[in-house]
């Protein structure tokens, strides 16, 4: 996940959007209504959305980055719930975002140049209501139900494993906690797009020290404890931070039990996980104190594979050539990662050479291409 969307600063963002002329210049065209893709011009200081209204159902955005920084685009619901996002859009590149929005109402678009901060935001109206694709296609319903079971099973493993990690921190067993850190995160990293979709949980559990935070919001979660364990030593409040981590994970568990997933969210999540690998693991950015990035890398790929596998019956119906290509590319990444195994885990990121990370980036890019087609196929 890129640097987080912070809840609770919509007014400032609207001001920024107004400044950037996002809301004022956006023509009330009916590109959305015509079902055609809505063009988004994402610049370093502007976010021009080709239409600020679209009928409920499948909404497609084509996000063209006209700026000089890597960017991302979001469609946000109430409380900054992420309805859909496309990230890691390099300068000059165009990426497509398909979102299923069955319920009419007021949403928010946000471009995030440099992938930091709240983004340049604007209102977006969805009119009417639409049947949920899962109600119209049993295979899609089975896909989301199957993936929901997968997410639930990961969380049911995440809670007790995080409990073990928290207990080790609280009894000041530094070596025990260090060993549990990457293992407990595996279950989290496999399902991160689902956690992220809640908007406020991900920054608390997986935020980085240098993320932008609202005043008074502390650096908490896994990476705070990672820094305590590997850099600063356990602190007087480490036990409280550990308790807070477990409470946030249990909050996630509660929310996931009732979350409604759409098939296109599974497809977008599969691609987001690979973007995660590209921006956070292959760069060593995520686990910068422990250098356990390859554990997360593997978990992200496994989570992506699980989302694609849930959609496979639909993919095979609609494009029988895509599935075998995906199998091949996933297998290539798995084989590559096997080469970096050490005991039950992986070599530390600090052991990787530029040649290693280049090979990893190429394999993940080669996988990302067919994975980015899944959303278009399952919604076709
Ligand atoms: Cu993460």
From TrEMBL:
Keywords: Signal. It holds the Pfam family Cupredoxin_1. InterPro entries: Cupredoxin, EfeM/EfeO_iron_uptake, EfeO_Cupredoxin, Imelysin-like, Imelysin-like_EfeO/Algp7, Imelysin_sf, Iron_uptake_EfeM/EfeO. Residues 1-28 form the signal peptide. Residues 143-373 form the Imelysin-like domain. Residues 15-126 form the EfeO-type cupredoxin-like domain. It is found in: Periplasm. The keyword Signal applies. PANTHER family: IRON UPTAKE SYSTEM COMPONENT EFEO. Belongs to the EfeM/EfeO family. This is Peptidase M75 family protein.
């Amino acid at each position: 996940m890129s640097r987080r969307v912070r809840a609770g600063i919509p007014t400032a963002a609207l001001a920024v959007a107004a400044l950037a002329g996002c809301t004022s210049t956006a023509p009330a065209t009916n590109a959305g209504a015509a079902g055609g893709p809505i063009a988004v011009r994402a610049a370093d200081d502007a976010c021009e959305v080709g239409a600020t209204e679209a009928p409920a159902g499948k909404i497609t955005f084509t996000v063209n980055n006209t700026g000089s920084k890597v960017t991302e685009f979001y469609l946000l619901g109430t409380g900054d719930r992420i309805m859909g996002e496309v990230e890691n859009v390099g300068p000059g590149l165009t990426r497509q975002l398909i979102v299923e929005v069955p319920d009419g109402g007021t949403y928010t678009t946000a471009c995030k140049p440099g992938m930091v901060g709240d983004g340049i935001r604007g209102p977006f109206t969805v009119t009417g209501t639409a049947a949920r694709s899962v109600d119209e296609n049993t295979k899609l319903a089975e896909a989301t139900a199957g993936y929901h079971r997968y997410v639930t099973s990961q969380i049911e493993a995440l809670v007790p494993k995080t409990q073990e990690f928290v207990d080790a921190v609280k009894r000041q067993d530094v070596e025990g906690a260090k060993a549990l850190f990457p293992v407990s995160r595996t279950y989290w990293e496999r399902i991160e797009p689902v956690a992220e979709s809640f908007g406020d949980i991900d920054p608390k559990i997986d935020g980085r020290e240098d993320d932008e935070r609202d005043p008074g919001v502390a650096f908490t979660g896994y990476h705070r404890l990672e820094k305590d364990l590997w850099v600063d030593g356990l602190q007087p409040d480490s036990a409280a931070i550990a308790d807070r981590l477990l409470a946030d994970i249990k909050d996630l568990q509660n929310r996931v039990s009732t979350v409604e997933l759409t098939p296109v969210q599974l497809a977008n999540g599969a691609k987001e996980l690979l973007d995660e690998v590209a921006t956070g693991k292959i760069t060593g950015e995520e686990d910068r104190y422990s250098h356990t990035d390859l554990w997360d890398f593997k978990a992200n790929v496994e989570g992506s594979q699980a989302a694609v596998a849930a959609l496979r019956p639909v993919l095979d119906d609609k494009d029988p050539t895509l599935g075998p290509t995906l199998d091949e590319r996933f297998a290539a990444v798995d084989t590559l990662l096997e080469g970096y195994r050490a005991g039950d885990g992986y070599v530390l990121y600090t052991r990787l050479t530029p040649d290693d990370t280049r090979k990893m980036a190429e394999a993940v890019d080669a996988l990302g291409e067919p994975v980015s087609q899944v959303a278009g196929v399952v919604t076709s």
